[in-house]
Amino acid sequence: MKEFIEYILQFGNLNQQQLDLISKKATERVLHKDEYFSEAGKIAQEVGFILEGIIRVCYYNNKGEEITKYFIDENNLVVDLESFDNDICSNAYVQAITDCKMLVFSKKDWKDLLDIIIPWEAIVNKIISRALRQKIERRSPLVSEDATTRYLMFLKIYPNVVNRIPLSYIASYLGITQSSLSRIRKNIH
Amino acid sequence: MKEFIEYILQFGNLNQQQLDLISKKATERVLHKDEYFSEAGKIAQEVGFILEGIIRVCYYNNKGEEITKYFIDENNLVVDLESFDNDICSNAYVQAITDCKMLVFSKKDWKDLLDIIIPWEAIVNKIISRALRQKIERRSPLVSEDATTRYLMFLKIYPNVVNRIPLSYIASYLGITQSSLSRIRKNIH
DNA sequence: AATGCTTTTTGTCATTTGACAAATGATTCT
DNA sequence: AGAATCATTTGTCAAATGACAAAAAGCATT
After folding, report:
1. Residue B61's pLDDT is what?
2. Which of the residues A38, B135, B157, B173 has the least number of beta carbons within 10 Å of its own beta carbon?
3. pLDDT number for residue B189
4. Which residue numbers delimit the Cyclic nucleotide-binding domain (chains A, B) (predicted)?
5. Is A129 within 8 Å of B133 when comparing Cβ atoms?
6. Quick one: what percent of chain A has pLDDT higher than 70?
């Protein structure tokens, strides 16, 4: 919980009473490897915060290949925004790729907090828009670089991820095959 | 101006007085082909809205290659958010690729409006976060598809752009060379 | 029409990556 | 330890793309 409070306070100030209100609504939950936090075809009902572990967001393209859109690691929010905000079906799976310890807020509690704690909305907006910008910054350069550069960028962006998850996920994140990734790794070392 | 009002009202309601306040702060400006709306190394000082024309955002990667990050066409906001919001130097060029007719707000006016018109902030947040999400949705799939598919996606996303700008920009957007793009076009037709 | 200028297409060859199959390595379970 | 399972690497060949140069096409100006 401490981690979450610290995280929040990076984006704005709240008094102890407000922080307590928020804390009270959070539930701790363990999500096991391969379990879904939210699924394609369903409406996202929760907001999460990763205390420990790694989650990925993935979907299936029109050829049926599984594509990993991005990874989310410790001390970050997890929510399928498009689906959560607009109550529409998601087209992505949000899946634990290691065992995860999380804080979870139900949609109702999350919305209540936004109504009750006025400055909370501004903070959430900051958090969300920073996260969105970060995603763009991270994904965009992947288009215009060769696979080796992409892999090196991945290592920089997610320094704590590479040894904790299957290479196949990294390959699908980079848009290359597992064997290509394997060859790239061989050439780097 | 009518276009801008319409655009705004998609995201929330404002009364006539509020709309007038906003209108009064907007300046119309023509940006000629190849001119910059904002530049790398400088701090973005304005928010724009494209009435007519096409703008692109580009940067130079570590090999010195020019990479087009995305295109912005009619009836969309133009602002280098990261730079504008945080008063930090941008690392991207925002450049007209056709002659453009725009509405422009100075940073001061833009911020004043946010203070004066309370519901305006929520609307701007919605606009920005929708734009950010759109960017991710558009760029992200480019990573995992082959070049032909990427070109077809480009055509879908920007149906009104392809015949109005040089192919070299499209190639750099797709992360391929001009000659590859040329060959792809040949195979499609 | 002729001239320059820029954009786009082609051609050739080298390199990267994909597809598929097989081999090796790691991990878990009994 | 052995078997089963899954993850990773390697091998081979085909296809896609890049690099570079040259040709062709398009466009504006005269």
Report:
1. 82
2. B157
3. 65
4. 10-114
5. no
6. 99
